[in-house]
Amino acid sequence: MKPVSAREPLVRSTAEAQADGAPPYATMSDPDRSDLANVTRRLLILFVLVAGLAAACGLTYSIAWKSGVDNLRRNAAVRVDRTTSALKSTLERYESLPYLLAEHPIVQDVLVDPSPANVKRANLYLEDLNLHARATVTYIISLNGGVGRFFGIGTISQAPGYYISQPVRRDGKIVGVAVVKLDLEWFQGVDASEPLVVTDDHGVIFLSSVPAWKYHTIRPLSGPVADSIYQARQYAQQPIAALPVTIERTLEGDAQIVRIGGGRYAPRYLASRRSMGEPDWHLITMSTVDPVDADARKATIVTGFGYVSLVLLAFYWRMRRARVREVMRSRALLQKAYAELNRRVAERTADLSEANEQLQKEVAERTRAEQELRAAHDELIQASKLAALGQMAAGITHELNQPLAALRSFSDNTRVFLERGDQVSARENLEAIAALTERMGKITNQLKLFVGRARPRSARAPIMRALRNVVGLLQKRLQGIAIEYALLDSSSGARTPLSLADDHAELVAHCDDLRLEQVLINLLGNALDATAGMSAPHIVIEIEVGESSLSFAVSDNGPGIPDDVLPRLFEPFFTTKEMGQGLGLGLAISSSIARDCGGTLVARNGPDGGALFVLTLRRARVQTSHTSDPLTTGP
Question: What is the pLDDT of residue 443?
Fold first, then answer.
């Protein structure tokens, strides 16, 4: 292997790289233009999806409404035909009764000779006939007349009815009129759930299942027609007003969509009309359109949900394909790194073989050769560590984010204090900045420990000091957040409030103080992210003290952890945050620190909602003394 010369430049210019056949450095593209293109493309996709949703919902509503109206129209046609047949059958059943009455000798005798005996006999006959025929009224009139049919309100009884008359003839001469009055009020009770009306030849409603619609007109009457009805006392001289009917749509089969009443929320009906012929009446059935509208809305909602589900499924499939491509690319990079490592190992092995040959030739140099072999082995281990240095650097970058944010906040506050002349506060901020830089130095020292050949294996940390440092580091983000501190005795179950001012020197954990602060910063930072946007954010930090363990429980009132995310929560580079807001290393590093210290870190959803993280560490024995170090490691 060719060693690197001390004078050989590590960075070459573009011209030198091109001269050696190496590819030149890539130039950076304009990020603003790329972001603008991405935003435009996403807005266009969103617009297309929304337009597709609107078109699908509109088409579904139109088809469902038309299908429902067609079905309603067919049912209404069957109903109006059935009702028309029933009404005509009732009228035809009584059509011959006046004729039979006029041909009876008793009726003819009383009209020719109205003696008391003939009148009494005729009354008995009429009562018996009326009883058996189930007519409302049956009577005879000693006036000339002809065949007639008439619906009206009686001038004496004020009861509406249908009148059928026939002339009474004796010896070829008309001597009177036989009249039968029928009560058709039973008609208004037929299928009262949907309105039903019967109009005369002028459009006046004289039968209706809705009493308020009686003696109204479907269409306005002309002046002469209204005067003739009034003069004939057909409806007891009641004022005939027009029913407020608005025709919205005309359908095939003599059906219409009408709205009865004024206002936006007036009921809508499907009106089906049938002509009875003789008499010249029209029967109209009203079927409410509300169920059709409701079914069309339900179908539209189902279509909308289905469309959105398909879109989400397509996005999920696309994101999964992108993730698979990324995994394949990462695998290719790992294979390339592994091949490079094998090449270096092969080169090292060749060097070792050559060294072994030299050892066989020169026994005197055996000790020196063995030392070279150990050195080569250590270099191989260091090469493995350097291969993972990129991942460690990403972790260190993640851990430096919080101190850097706090450092920026303290520096901004110091500038404000200096402008105000508040030297005391500025000095305090500068001391905090110094502490933060020291902390950042400790974090970067971890990288040296990783690259180096030895790492500290045991340490002790007072947990209250670590908690105070973490709260001070995150004090800007904690503004406006309700935080509750509590101390829980695992043996007695007693729970007492905890103050950060309390030292609790007896509470010491087997962990490096910097690493303990790193874990607490990650847990408290995740709780702050989870409660962002909540109306009343609340975080609880509870320390449970046992004989040989100390546990930190950090809970929040956020949305909690989804079930599909929980199993992968501690995987490296796995994050639910948006791009640029997290590397997905915080919890992985925290879990690794807990394992290195002989503890555990678990996550679950709290009983009252929100996320709950529990860090458990081994408790160190301490001795409180005024002359010695208060921290001593137990057996």
Answer: 64
